[in-house]
Amino acid sequence: MQNSWDVIIIGGGPAGATAACTLRQSGRKVLVLEKEKFPRFHIGESLLPYNRPIFDELGVWDKIQAAGFMRKRGAQFWMGDGSMHTRLNFSRGSFTEFPEAIQVERAKFDNILLRHAEELGAEVREETLVTSHAVEGDHVTAQFRTKDGTDHEARAAFLIDASGLNNFTANREKLRDYYPGHKKIAIFGHYSGVQMTDGEEKGDILIVRRKNSWFWMIPLEDDKVSIGLVLDLEDFKSLKQEPLAVFDDAVATTPTVRDRMTNAKAITQGHVLSDFSYTNRTLVSDRVVRVGDAAGFIDPIFSSGVMLAMHSAQRGAQVVNDAIAAQKTMTFAMKRYEWSTKKHVGRFWQFIEKFYTKHFAQLFFQPSNRFRMVCAINCVLAGRPEMTFATWWRLKFFFGLVWIQKRFALAKPIEIG
User: Fold this and answer.
1) Tens-digit pLDDT profile for residues 165-196
2) Are residues 51 and 23 in the same domain?
3) Are residues 38 and 111 in the same domain?
4) How many domains are there within the chain?
């Protein structure tokens, strides 16, 4: 095996594959080390409209389109008792250039991206576990173990960490910080026989708001729906029940979900993911750039995960390519990548943080497009990386109203249950 590369990438998920494609488009020698064998099950199936320009730039859109994934034109937000709901229609946002997204089964989607990176010339090694890394003066090394149990080492000019929630390099350097008071657990699976929306609203993701938790319902195919429950980790522990029992009880006490699952049958169920929503204090260091979930991860309530992962990976790979060309270990562009990535995540975080509050819900579930505020919200939640002044001031105005709503009743009071 060749042991000298331009870039070693840890992880072959959407972030790792995107970084590999981007670097191969610039002619770099790339080694991707992925611990699992693709295709493999993964959660996070709902994409955003601003994934589309990245697909086009990577040259992978035709393959994704040919896979026949479900089209997603909007996102619906429901109260658990069914008393109220609102819909964001991506095609009707005056600041949103891309009118729709897709719902994907991640096993198929991630495999398309990784195989595309291979076709572009990236060396992909699956079932390969990275055990350590070291940064030296003129290179970085990665030690890894292959399926047969043998240990190897590779050398490169740069390392891109796309290891996902494993957060490989940041954990080794103790850089992970959790968002205060936001430790969650997700319990999820795939189901058939679920009654979802049809017509113009076919393919919409449904977010169902409960008092202190929420459900996602994502149509993957005509008769396959991903359904997940997200709740506080401490609340889950206090129930002293198995995850599937907690999930089933929540379904039974949430009319919006229960009524849609009357005839549902489990295809796969009881998957659990916990302790998510964190940030890393730094995303770049000499010869190392963190992208995707290894740059930080936030609550999936607005389906931002894959889009943020691919956007950060594309930008991260670009600054790495430029640093190699300049023969530098650290550049201003790398620091700017860190700043812009955290800013992009921060736009979603302000919605996530407020979503769990009653005063935010009272405005969000009773939207007014006066001053085109809903259009500005639509733009952010569609995943637009950069804000214009026109959207920036409208968002400031909206969150100003949220602050006022907490103190004075601007919108009609609503109960959340």
Assistant:
1) 899 999 999 999 888 878 899 999 999 999 99
2) yes
3) yes
4) 2
Q: What is the pLDDT of residues 358-400, one digit of tens each?
A: 888 888 888 888 889 899 999 999 999 888 999 999 999 999 9
Residue 80 carries which DSSP code?
T
Provide the Cα torsion 178, 184, 189, 190; round to 10°.
Answer: -80
3-state secondary structure of 99: coil
DSSP state, residue 326 = T
Residue 145, amino acid = R
In this structure, the answer to whether residues 139 and 33 fall within a common structural domain is: yes
Q: Both 286 and 390 in a single domain?
A: no
Q: Alpha-carbon distance 114 to 308, whole Å?
A: 17
* Residue 101 · residue 251 · CB < 8 Å: no
Determine the Cα–Cα distance for residues 164 and 296; give it in Å rounded to an integer.
9
Report pTM: 0.94
Contact 103, 132 (CB under 8 A): no
Q: What are phi and psi of 108, to 5 degrees?
A: -75, -45
Interior/surface letters 358-393, b for 16+ CB within 10 angstroms, e for the rest:
ebbbbbbbebeeeebbbbbbbbbbbbbbebeeebee
Q: Which domain holds residue 287?
A: 4-69+106-178+278-346
